[in-house]
Protein backbone atom coordinates (compact mmCIF):
# COMPACT_ATOMS: atom_id res chain seq x y z
CA UNK A 1 0.00 0.00 0.00
CA UNK A 2 1.18 3.52 -0.82
CA UNK A 3 0.95 4.82 2.75
CA UNK A 4 -0.69 8.20 3.19
CA UNK A 5 1.20 10.45 5.60
CA UNK A 6 -0.50 12.23 8.50
CA UNK A 7 0.69 15.61 9.76
CA UNK A 8 -0.88 16.64 13.07
CA UNK A 9 -1.45 20.35 13.62
CA UNK A 10 -1.07 21.21 17.31
CA UNK A 11 -2.06 24.90 17.14
CA UNK A 12 -5.13 24.48 19.31
CA UNK A 13 -3.28 22.92 22.20
CA UNK A 14 -1.68 26.38 22.39
CA UNK A 15 -5.12 28.00 22.04
CA UNK A 16 -6.28 26.23 25.21
CA UNK A 17 -3.07 27.17 27.03
CA UNK A 18 -3.34 30.82 26.04
CA UNK A 19 -7.00 31.06 27.11
CA UNK A 20 -5.79 31.09 30.71
CA UNK A 21 -2.35 32.57 30.17
CA UNK A 22 -0.94 29.38 31.68
CA UNK A 23 2.09 27.28 30.83
CA UNK A 24 -0.04 24.21 30.06
CA UNK A 25 -1.13 22.25 28.11
CA UNK A 26 2.25 22.17 26.38
CA UNK A 27 2.27 21.96 22.56
CA UNK A 28 5.55 20.05 22.59
CA UNK A 29 4.03 17.38 24.83
CA UNK A 30 1.18 17.08 22.33
CA UNK A 31 3.74 16.76 19.54
CA UNK A 32 5.50 13.94 21.36
CA UNK A 33 2.21 12.09 21.88
CA UNK A 34 1.18 12.64 18.25
CA UNK A 35 4.42 11.19 16.90
CA UNK A 36 4.19 8.21 19.25
CA UNK A 37 0.59 7.60 18.08
CA UNK A 38 1.54 7.39 14.41
CA UNK A 39 1.77 10.98 13.12
CA UNK A 40 4.40 11.36 10.41
CA UNK A 41 5.11 14.99 11.20
CA UNK A 42 4.02 18.04 13.15
CA UNK A 43 2.39 21.17 11.77
CA UNK A 44 2.35 24.53 13.57
CA UNK A 45 1.10 27.92 12.35
CA UNK A 46 2.85 30.93 13.83
CA UNK A 47 0.32 33.68 13.18
CA UNK A 48 1.24 37.34 13.10
CA UNK A 49 -1.04 38.01 16.09
CA UNK A 50 0.41 35.00 18.02
CA UNK A 51 -3.09 33.89 19.01
CA UNK A 52 -1.93 30.33 19.65
CA UNK A 53 1.57 29.12 18.72
CA UNK A 54 4.34 31.37 20.06
CA UNK A 55 7.90 32.02 18.94
CA UNK A 56 9.10 29.97 21.92
CA UNK A 57 6.90 27.07 20.77
CA UNK A 58 8.57 27.12 17.36
CA UNK A 59 12.00 27.07 19.00
CA UNK A 60 11.04 24.00 21.05
CA UNK A 61 9.17 22.19 18.25
CA UNK A 62 11.98 22.69 15.75
CA UNK A 63 14.42 21.10 18.17
CA UNK A 64 12.04 18.28 19.07
CA UNK A 65 11.37 17.36 15.43
CA UNK A 66 15.08 17.41 14.58
CA UNK A 67 15.79 15.15 17.57
CA UNK A 68 13.01 12.72 16.57
CA UNK A 69 13.97 12.80 12.89
CA UNK A 70 10.48 13.96 11.96
CA UNK A 71 9.47 16.91 9.78
CA UNK A 72 8.17 20.20 11.13
CA UNK A 73 5.73 21.85 8.75
CA UNK A 74 5.87 25.56 9.54
CA UNK A 75 2.70 27.32 8.37
CA UNK A 76 3.27 31.01 7.80
CA UNK A 77 2.01 34.15 6.14
CA UNK A 78 4.05 35.61 3.30
CA UNK A 79 5.64 38.41 5.33
CA UNK A 80 9.23 39.48 5.94
CA UNK A 81 8.85 38.69 9.65
CA UNK A 82 7.70 35.10 9.05
CA UNK A 83 10.27 34.49 6.32
CA UNK A 84 12.97 35.65 8.73
CA UNK A 85 11.76 33.24 11.41
CA UNK A 86 11.65 30.37 8.92
CA UNK A 87 15.16 31.15 7.73
CA UNK A 88 16.43 31.00 11.31
CA UNK A 89 14.83 27.63 12.06
CA UNK A 90 15.20 25.88 8.70
CA UNK A 91 12.00 23.79 9.03
CA UNK A 92 11.68 20.76 6.81
CA UNK A 93 8.66 22.38 5.17
CA UNK A 94 7.35 25.92 4.96
CA UNK A 95 3.67 26.14 4.01
CA UNK A 96 2.64 29.60 2.84
CA UNK A 97 -0.94 30.42 3.78
CA UNK A 98 -3.23 33.46 3.54
CA UNK A 99 -3.80 35.26 6.81
CA UNK A 100 -6.14 38.00 7.98
CA UNK A 101 -6.13 39.12 11.61
CA UNK A 102 -9.93 39.23 11.84
CA UNK A 103 -10.50 35.66 10.60
CA UNK A 104 -11.31 32.87 13.04
CA UNK A 105 -9.35 30.35 10.97
CA UNK A 106 -7.82 30.24 7.50
CA UNK A 107 -10.78 30.96 5.24
CA UNK A 108 -9.49 29.92 1.83
CA UNK A 109 -6.48 29.31 -0.33
CA UNK A 110 -3.58 31.59 -1.10
CA UNK A 111 -4.08 33.71 -4.23
CA UNK A 112 -0.88 32.72 -5.99
CA UNK A 113 -2.03 34.19 -9.33
CA UNK A 114 -2.80 37.63 -7.88
CA UNK A 115 0.18 37.61 -5.53
CA UNK A 116 2.71 36.19 -7.99
CA UNK A 117 5.22 39.03 -7.68
CA UNK A 118 5.07 38.91 -3.87
CA UNK A 119 5.01 35.15 -3.40
CA UNK A 120 7.60 34.05 -5.97
CA UNK A 121 10.57 35.74 -4.20
CA UNK A 122 9.48 34.23 -0.86
CA UNK A 123 9.38 30.76 -2.42
CA UNK A 124 12.89 31.23 -3.81
CA UNK A 125 14.33 32.45 -0.49
CA UNK A 126 12.87 29.51 1.42
CA UNK A 127 13.92 26.95 -1.18
CA UNK A 128 17.44 28.37 -1.30
CA UNK A 129 17.61 27.93 2.49
CA UNK A 130 16.73 24.25 2.15
CA UNK A 131 13.04 24.21 3.12
CA UNK A 132 10.48 22.36 1.06
CA UNK A 133 7.95 25.01 0.05
CA UNK A 134 4.24 24.27 0.05
CA UNK A 135 1.44 26.61 -1.02
CA UNK A 136 -1.99 26.25 0.58
CA UNK A 137 -4.40 26.78 -2.32
CA UNK A 138 -7.82 26.03 -3.71
CA UNK A 139 -8.10 23.25 -6.29
CA UNK A 140 -8.16 25.84 -9.06
CA UNK A 141 -6.16 25.02 -12.22
CA UNK A 142 -4.80 28.59 -12.44
CA UNK A 143 -3.55 28.51 -8.87
CA UNK A 144 -2.03 25.07 -9.34
CA UNK A 145 -0.21 25.96 -12.56
CA UNK A 146 1.11 29.21 -11.12
CA UNK A 147 2.33 27.38 -8.01
CA UNK A 148 4.39 25.11 -10.24
CA UNK A 149 5.66 28.04 -12.32
CA UNK A 150 7.05 29.93 -9.33
CA UNK A 151 8.94 26.93 -8.01
CA UNK A 152 6.83 25.51 -5.17
CA UNK A 153 7.53 21.82 -4.62
CA UNK A 154 4.21 21.09 -2.89
CA UNK A 155 0.61 22.27 -2.98
CA UNK A 156 -1.78 21.66 -0.10
CA UNK A 157 -5.35 21.64 -1.38
CA UNK A 158 -7.92 23.37 0.82
CA UNK A 159 -10.57 20.83 1.81
CA UNK A 160 -12.66 23.05 4.08
CA UNK A 161 -15.51 23.72 1.65
CA UNK A 162 -15.91 20.01 0.91
CA UNK A 163 -15.96 19.10 4.60
CA UNK A 164 -18.48 21.83 5.42
CA UNK A 165 -20.81 20.75 2.60
CA UNK A 166 -20.54 17.06 3.50
CA UNK A 167 -21.30 17.71 7.18
CA UNK A 168 -24.29 19.86 6.22
CA UNK A 169 -25.74 17.06 4.12
CA UNK A 170 -25.36 19.09 0.90
CA UNK A 171 -24.60 16.02 -1.16
CA UNK A 172 -24.55 17.55 -4.65
CA UNK A 173 -22.36 20.46 -3.57
CA UNK A 174 -20.01 18.17 -1.68
CA UNK A 175 -19.65 15.87 -4.71
CA UNK A 176 -18.95 18.83 -6.99
CA UNK A 177 -16.22 20.13 -4.68
CA UNK A 178 -14.77 16.64 -4.28
CA UNK A 179 -14.64 16.34 -8.09
CA UNK A 180 -12.65 19.60 -8.24
CA UNK A 181 -10.29 18.27 -5.58
CA UNK A 182 -9.73 15.10 -7.60
CA UNK A 183 -9.14 17.06 -10.80
CA UNK A 184 -6.84 19.50 -9.03
CA UNK A 185 -4.79 16.72 -7.45
CA UNK A 186 -4.40 15.01 -10.83
CA UNK A 187 -3.28 18.25 -12.47
CA UNK A 188 -0.82 19.04 -9.69
CA UNK A 189 0.65 15.56 -9.89
CA UNK A 190 1.04 15.84 -13.66
CA UNK A 191 3.03 19.06 -13.15
CA UNK A 192 5.44 17.36 -10.78
CA UNK A 193 4.01 18.86 -7.60
CA UNK A 194 3.67 16.82 -4.43
CA UNK A 195 0.05 16.99 -3.31
CA UNK A 196 -1.14 17.43 0.28
CA UNK A 197 -4.61 18.28 1.59
CA UNK A 198 -6.05 19.75 4.74
CA UNK A 199 -8.59 21.89 6.60
CA UNK A 200 -11.78 20.77 8.28
CA UNK A 201 -11.16 17.03 7.94
CA UNK A 202 -12.83 14.75 10.50
CA UNK A 203 -13.71 11.05 10.75
CA UNK A 204 -16.79 11.47 8.55
CA UNK A 205 -15.00 13.28 5.72
CA UNK A 206 -11.52 11.79 5.64
CA UNK A 207 -12.15 8.70 3.49
CA UNK A 208 -13.07 10.37 0.16
CA UNK A 209 -10.09 12.71 0.46
CA UNK A 210 -7.68 9.97 1.53
CA UNK A 211 -8.78 7.91 -1.49
CA UNK A 212 -7.50 10.51 -3.99
CA UNK A 213 -4.39 8.72 -5.29
CA UNK A 214 -2.18 11.75 -5.91
CA UNK A 215 -2.51 13.01 -2.33
CA UNK A 216 0.43 11.85 -0.21
CA UNK A 217 -0.21 13.75 3.03
CA UNK A 218 -3.13 15.03 5.08
CA UNK A 219 -2.70 17.78 7.67
CA UNK A 220 -5.33 17.62 10.41
CA UNK A 221 -5.49 19.57 13.64
CA UNK A 222 -8.60 21.18 15.10
CA UNK A 223 -10.75 18.06 14.94
CA UNK A 224 -8.11 15.84 16.51
CA UNK A 225 -7.50 18.24 19.40
CA UNK A 226 -11.26 18.47 19.99
CA UNK A 227 -11.73 14.70 19.84
CA UNK A 228 -8.84 14.28 22.28
CA UNK A 229 -11.03 15.81 24.99
CA UNK A 230 -13.22 12.70 24.82
CA UNK A 231 -10.90 9.83 23.88
CA UNK A 232 -7.39 11.20 24.34
CA UNK A 233 -4.98 12.43 21.68
CA UNK A 234 -3.45 9.00 21.15
CA UNK A 235 -6.86 7.40 20.55
CA UNK A 236 -7.98 10.23 18.24
CA UNK A 237 -4.88 9.96 16.07
CA UNK A 238 -4.90 6.17 15.97
CA UNK A 239 -8.51 6.14 14.78
CA UNK A 240 -7.78 8.75 12.09
CA UNK A 241 -4.76 6.72 11.00
CA UNK A 242 -6.93 3.58 10.63
CA UNK A 243 -9.53 5.43 8.55
CA UNK A 244 -6.85 6.89 6.29
CA UNK A 245 -5.22 3.49 5.78
CA UNK A 246 -8.57 1.82 5.06
CA UNK A 247 -9.50 4.46 2.48
CA UNK A 248 -6.15 4.18 0.74
CA UNK A 249 -6.35 0.36 0.71
CA UNK A 250 -9.84 0.50 -0.82
CA UNK A 251 -8.73 2.97 -3.47
CA UNK A 252 -5.80 0.79 -4.51
CA UNK A 253 -7.93 -2.33 -4.57
CA UNK A 254 -10.52 -0.67 -6.85
TrEMBL record:
Pfam families documented for this protein: PdxJ
Chemical reaction(s) catalysed: 3-amino-2-oxopropyl phosphate + 1-deoxy-D-xylulose 5-phosphate = pyridoxine 5'-phosphate + phosphate + 2 H2O + H(+)
Pathway in which the depicted protein is active: Cofactor biosynthesis; pyridoxine 5'-phosphate biosynthesis; pyridoxine 5'-phosphate from D-erythrose 4-phosphate: step 5/5
Enzyme class: transferase
A GO CC annotation given for this chain: cytosol
Subcellular location: Cytoplasm
Annotated site residue numbers, Transition state stabilizer: 156
EC number: 2.6.99.2
Function: Catalyzes the complicated ring closure reaction between the two acyclic compounds 1-deoxy-D-xylulose-5-phosphate (DXP) and 3-amino-2-oxopropyl phosphate (1-amino-acetone-3-phosphate or AAP) to form pyridoxine 5'-phosphate (PNP) and inorganic phosphate.
Subunit structure: Homooctamer; tetramer of dimers.
UniProt xrefs under NCBIfam families: pdxJ, PRK05265.1-2, PRK05265.1-3, PRK05265.1-5
Name of protein: Pyridoxine 5'-phosphate synthase
Source organism per UniProt: Caulobacter mirabilis
Record gene name: pdxJ
